[in-house]
Amino acid sequence: MPTTLNRHAVPALAAILLGASGFAVLLALWLAGGGEVDVPWAPSLDLRLHFRLDGLGALYSLLATGVGLAVFAYAAGYLPRHLAAHGRSPAQARPFWGLLVLFMGSMVGLATAQDLILVFVFWDLTAISSYFLIAYDREERDSRWAALMALIVTGVSAVLLLIGALVLYAEHGTFSLPELFDRVEAGGTLTLAAGLLALAALAKSAQVPMHFWLPRAMTAPTPVSAYLHSAAMVAAGVLLIGRTYPLIERSDLVLDGLVVIGLSSVALGGVLALTRDDMKQLLAYSTLSQYGYVVFMYGLGGEKGAVAAGFYVVAHAISKSALFLTAGAVTEATGGAKRLSELGGLARELPLLAAASAAAVATIVAVPLTLGFFADELFFKAALEHGPAAVAAAVGAAGLTVAYLLRFWAGIFLGPRPCEARSLSAVLLGPVVVLGAVVLVGGVWASPVSGLAAAAGESSLRTGADASVAYHLDARPENLMALAAFAIGGLLLAAQTRAERWAGVVAQLGSRAGPERLYGAGLRRLNAMSDRVHALEVRDMRTRVSAVLVPAGALVVLALVATPTSGAFTVGAFEARDAGLMLMLVLAAVTAVATTVPRRHLTLALVLSTLGYALAGVYAFFDAPDVALVAVVVETLLVLLVLGVLALVPSAVLRREASLPTPAKRRWRDPLIGVVSGALVAALTWATLSRPSPARTVSAEHVRLADQAHAKDVVTAILADFRGLDTLGEVTVVAVALAGVLALLRGGRMW
Amino acid sequence: MVTSVVVQAVARLLLAPILMIAFAILVKGYAEVGDGFSAGAIAALGVLLHYVAFGRATTERLLPIRALPAACFAALLLALALATGPLVFGDPVLTYAPSPGAEVVQLGTLEVIGAVAFDVAVFVIVMGAALGIIHALARQAEEIRE
């Protein structure tokens, strides 16, 4: 490592330690037979903390922590260089590490959660940490746009997940997944809920048509792309499909939908990957294509599909991470080259990197002696059960994969060399080598991964599953399909220019009429609508107030016309003890009329404050001392604040504004609105007070219960105890007002 | 801003009594007229008078106003904890500690019960918010004048 152990390296080391210990703990727990935590923490609301380390949970959490560990090691060397290249201080590394650790934790929580609400919470946590990580280079507009796009697409689909969970709760009364699996029956509700859950999962895994956020998210720093957008966050989508598979598999419609969407993603991702020049974009399309494989396998249904899916996710995540880290390392070594057209012939200068990334490419391409060969063997076995169409699709997909990945590797490491390359430091090279070694070892000793995949299949299918893989040197159908795939890939590479031309046509079609245009157009329309509403309602203060008063007055007129008004307006008797109240009311009325007179802002503020104090006097005479106290105090506070704010405005501006003549239209419109709404409110108050409600049950109840609440002052008991939730809401509003003022005036600092 | 000697003397002399009255209103709120909200507002008013008389720098040197915005948010968290804490034990929200009919510890007029803790949280929130806003406005006024 180039830097010595300074305090900026501490967060990196802490994160790596956390990742390593997490991996170790999870592995130990899994080998000891799994564990479970079930705490009903809010029983009156049916909320439980239910985590179980079953096969599916172990597979995804070990994947998240294992790949995360490699990425953390890489990022420890990558991040200081990245910050230095962008001219940012090294202290800005701390939020990056915090977000990565948060993400790792939420992935583990998501994998082991057994309660739909918990799943939703961790789902959104991963989306939020992804948002901040993609937008880590805050100054770049592309990063901010990509982060917002990812958040909106995955966040809106998360709401679909919640709605699906609520539909299931309304039908069966529980959020807990094991209980739901026992209770559901096939039918319309189940199809709806399963469809919503599947939609949320597909958006998260960047499947067609919600795929457009993933290539854009490649503006994130390389460790983020390698971890989130190849191995962990997009894996969360297929994790949800696996976790809720007992629900999904009972609905043939959803399964068919999964097959269609999976195949479309495979095709689209593969075709577009053939045209991309930018390394990370190519890998992004490859990722969405490979997850299309997994979705297709789940959609096929049956035992083989679920088992193959788990195996495939592991093989893909390890190798795709390695390839992203390779892309980042190559960019570092060549001083910023990001495109295949700028690169070439680096195998001589970076032999170790070339070998490690070749192992990763070989895994995804499914060359024998790598982990990916077994993954494809299971994939072909699953496709064989479902007829020739599935077989043809599978072989075609594998062929496309061969073509674009070989193009990727050859474009970087073979051919003529247009650029120079420095040597790489060990911390950037090491993780790639480790990941490459893992997939090579897996090619020979696959039983750990197949054991995990079988256990994951068992969690999804709720019956026993088997995922044994081995090398068979005979003419089995799977081997023939693999050979056919290689042949197709070779053909595509040979006809490269023609293939690229056709692929380019598809890409053009997509950018002209694809879902990303819909997204952009949708956002623009929303903004335009918001601007129109703003222009209509919020033009100036008076318009805003009359926008409330005029409809209220219209409703009052409706009410008076619609309800019987005989005996509605009575005039009560006037007694001597009402003299004080009458005096304060007259004072309040006179002051209210007097507020229309002053032109200067200071005078107006003082007259308004007199009105406030007069009303406080009215409350006092109305036998409401608590209200009067609060009214006086608040009035004083507000008047002093208004005067203080007025003192900030230059007196010349105040004088000019005060002497402006009223425009002609407003000269009759404002008084008319004021008089009419005032008269209507007066009529309403008169009508209400003429017929006081006969039953005062609620207040009598409060007075009766005050003793049980250990209170002698009923009003305070009402505020703090009986209507405590109202007070909580109001107090939250006060705190939010403080936060707003601090955000506006102090730039968000607390002091 | 220079204010007259009379205003300064009044502000200095009244600060302690005003804070005392605010605290008294908070404490006796459960037995007589008063509650956390008006207590917080009165306390803020006392400090605001000091601001007007002596200016921002002197007042903030004398009184620990710097901690108040953070205290406001901490008190909000306390109020939320008091309200939602009973959920963990299976009770509905806002179930306070000494249940009806149980013994209540009394310190003079003050009763040591959950509702009074809630009231104290409201007091801190209101005072913290008011003084935080006043501080922000005062800083803004200074920056404008420069």
Task: Outline the structure in words.
- The complex is a heterodimer of chains A (751) and B (146).
- A two-stranded antiparallel sheet of chain A has the order 1-2.
- By secondary structure, chain A is mostly helical.
- Chain A contains 30 helices and two strands.
- Chain A is elongated.
- Chain A folds into five domains: 1-153 and 210-239, Up-down Bundle (I/LWEQ domain), CATH 1.20.1410; 264-509, no CATH class; 514-563; 582-657, no CATH class; 700-745.
- The two termini of chain A are 39 Å apart.
- Chain A has helices at 10-31, 55-85, 93-112, 116-134, 141-172, 177-183, 188-204, 213-216, 222-243, 245-248, 252-273, 279-300, 302-333, 351-365, 371-384, 387-413, 426-444, 447-461, 477-494, 496-513, 515-537, 541-562, 579-594, 601-621, 625-648, 651-658, 664-690, 697-705, 714-722, 724-745; strands at 36-42, 47-52.
- With 146 residues, chain B is mainly α.
- Chain B has one domain.
- Chain B has helices spanning 5-27, 36-54, 56-62, 68-84, 114-145; strands spanning 106-107, 110-111.
- A two-stranded antiparallel ribbon of chain B has the order 1-2.
- In chain B, a hairpin with a 2-residue loop joins strand 1 and strand 2 (110-111).
- The longest helix of chain B has 32 residues, at 114-145.
- The radius of gyration of chain B is 18 Å and the shape is elongated.
- The interface between A and B is large, with 48 and 62 residues.
